[in-house]
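ok, trying the design again with the full structure, not the truncated one.
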């Protein structure tokens, strides 16, 4: 098999791939996925009897060459024989349906085999679309995403439902799947790539619909129109009131839920006004909820005693505000939908992150005691502020006229709930002892505030700025009424020194490619730009020089356009504390 493929599959393949990569990134950004530069490959497998190279790769001249795909056909046969969807029967269906499903199964297996090769060579997780005929080739679209993005996104554990139906495990996977579907569709059009029309908002919606269809199947029913039904329910008012409440998605014969009330005449999910009225009987927290199989509401009930809240056969749909609802499985919030726009839920406060910040600010502290306070505080119904001060006793005395000072006391969960229910902050020391409650914080104005946030957040920012001026070690946990959690100071995470240096080395290598490869250069530059905080002044100077040289070379080669990138600047707060040596 030749090492290069100089013959194009079609004239617009590079434009098509670049456009697809851009739309995928835009769609992932729209749902709030972690910042990532996705990778797209187009792999063309020659049709039987056609001329030309057996395998074509777009982009050419990259790290993947046809020789990497030796034995591809044999591996595709193995994967085809393992495909659970082959077991799906379509009785009474015309012959062409069976033939199409057989073709899709074989194409899916071939795409998976190609994805395995790319994963081994590039270290990304790859997903493949179904092939589309383009001239002399069957063209596969492959999307590569870093594993940390997929693993760090709230997702289902199940990969198949009912033993054979593939599950959309997360919004991120749903976006990737929809982009692959649209790619296959577009490849079937003449001159694919000349007018690629993909709307990120439509991609995000399709991803949410696919995720909802998957949870419907896991709960024991067939896919439903539950996504549309929940959007109608969340935006329907009852007697002028915004509704809140919960539905449990479970099969009518599920042993995971206990019925308190059974409806003689079930209410269809599409009956928005009736369903909104019934929502008044449910609660947001654990308790009575409307019971639904995805098509109808058949009663009122709750999760059965002793049943696992993490079982992927029961899901919780919570209407939290006007137009807003959440999809959860146990303690995992899979998606938040705001007036029909889905997004990945903001991550909860992580214990490792909290401990790391406290250790770096205080040095010596009782991590377990502080974490117990943080867990209790983040459950505050109306939001709260937990201020951990290195000199809490002196601060309690200084702020005594605008606080309720107390003898140093360890607070259990019950008292934390009571104390955080009143206005003002809770002041504790690094060992978890409370020194004051209902504290009205002072502080000087700072340019680090956010006028889009409430008074609690900006009060915390001002106090922290004042504490820093007084060299007073301080950590603040802010819990907003809408559930948003902020940990101040927002210290950049520590990263491995070797990982930082590898980013710069990748940029150097991309800058040396001859002839110039603009796409490869910018793929290496974007991670450096994102993590510019971690680079030394000397490294920042080198990065800017590499950017200048890159564009000077492109202009010398005939480019009439130069992208004006903002020059990177070293951050004065950067020091070796942020780097981890192996």
């Amino acid at each position: 098999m030749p090492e290069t493929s100089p013959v194009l599959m079609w004239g617009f393949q590079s434009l098509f791939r670049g456009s697809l990569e851009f739309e995928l990134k835009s769609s992932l950004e729209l749902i709030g996925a972690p910042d990532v530069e996705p990778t797209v490959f187009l792999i063309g497998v020659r049709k039987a009897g056609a001329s030309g190279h057996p395998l074509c790769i777009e982009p050419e001249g990259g790290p993947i060459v046809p020789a990497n795909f030796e034995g591809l056909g044999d591996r595709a046969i193995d994967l085809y024989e393992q495909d659970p969807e082959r077991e799906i029967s379509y009785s009474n269906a015309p012959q062409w349906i069976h033939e199409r499903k057989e073709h899709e199964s074989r194409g899916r297996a071939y795409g998976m085999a190609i994805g395995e090769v790319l994963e081994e060579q590039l270290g990304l997780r790859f997903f493949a679309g179904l092939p589309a005929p383009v001239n002399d080739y069957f063209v596969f679209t492959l999307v590569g995403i870093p594993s940390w993005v997929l693993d760090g996104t709230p997702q289902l554990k199940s990969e198949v439902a009912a033993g054979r139906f593939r599950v959309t495990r997360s919004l991120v996977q749903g976006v990737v799947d929809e982009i692959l579907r649209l790619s296959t569709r577009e490849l079937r059009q003449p001159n694919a790539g000349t007018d690629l029309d993909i709307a990120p908002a439509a991609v995000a919606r399709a991803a949410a619909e696919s995720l909802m269809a998957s949870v419907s199947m896991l709960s024991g029913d067939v896919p439903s129109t539950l996504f549309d039904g929940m959007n109608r329910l969340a935006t329907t008012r009852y007697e002028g009131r915004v509704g809140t409440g919960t539905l449990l998605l479970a099969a009518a014969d599920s042993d995971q839920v206990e019925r308190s009330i059974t409806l003689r005449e079930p209410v269809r999910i599409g009956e928005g006004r009736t369903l909104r009225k019934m929502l008044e009987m449910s609660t947001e927290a654990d308790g009575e909820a409307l019971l639904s199989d995805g098509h109808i509401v058949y009663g009122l009930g709750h999760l059965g005693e002793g049943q696992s809240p993490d079982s992927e056969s029961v899901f919780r749909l919570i209407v939290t505000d006007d137009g807003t609802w959440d999809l959860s499985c146990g303690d995992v919030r899979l998606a938040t939908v705001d007036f029909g726009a889905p997004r990945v839920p903001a991550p909860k406060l992580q214990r490792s992150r909290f401990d790391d910040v406290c250790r770096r600010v205080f040095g010596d502290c009782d991590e377990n005691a502080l974490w117990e306070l943080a867990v209790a505080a983040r459950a505050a119904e109306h939001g709260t502020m937990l201020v951990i001060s290195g000199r809490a006793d002196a601060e309690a005395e200084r702020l005594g006229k605008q606080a309720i000072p107390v003898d140093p006391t360890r607070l259990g969960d019950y008292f934390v709930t009571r104390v955080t229910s009143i206005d003002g902050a809770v002041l504790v020391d690094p060992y978890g002892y409370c020194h004051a409650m209902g504290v009205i914080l002072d502080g000087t104005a700072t340019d680090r505030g956010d006028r889009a946030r409430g008074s609690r957040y900006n009060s915390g920012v001002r106090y922290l700025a004042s504490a820093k001026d007084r060299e007073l070690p301080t950590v603040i946990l802010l819990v907003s009424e809408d559930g948003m959690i902020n940990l101040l100071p927002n210290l950049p995470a520590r990263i491995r020194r070797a990982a930082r240096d590898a980013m710069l080395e990748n940029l150097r290598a991309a800058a040396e490619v001859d002839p110039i490869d603009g796409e490869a250069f910018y793929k290496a530059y974007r991670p450096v730009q994102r993590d510019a905080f971690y680079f030394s002044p000397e490294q920042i100077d080198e990065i800017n020089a590499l950017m200048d040289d890159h564009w000077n070379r492109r202009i010398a080669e005939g480019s009439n356009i130069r992208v004006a990138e903002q020059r990177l600047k070293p951050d004065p707060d950067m020091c070796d504390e942020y780097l981890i040596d192996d």
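Keeping the full-length input from now on. The CA atoms of residues 45 and 138 lie 5 Å apart.
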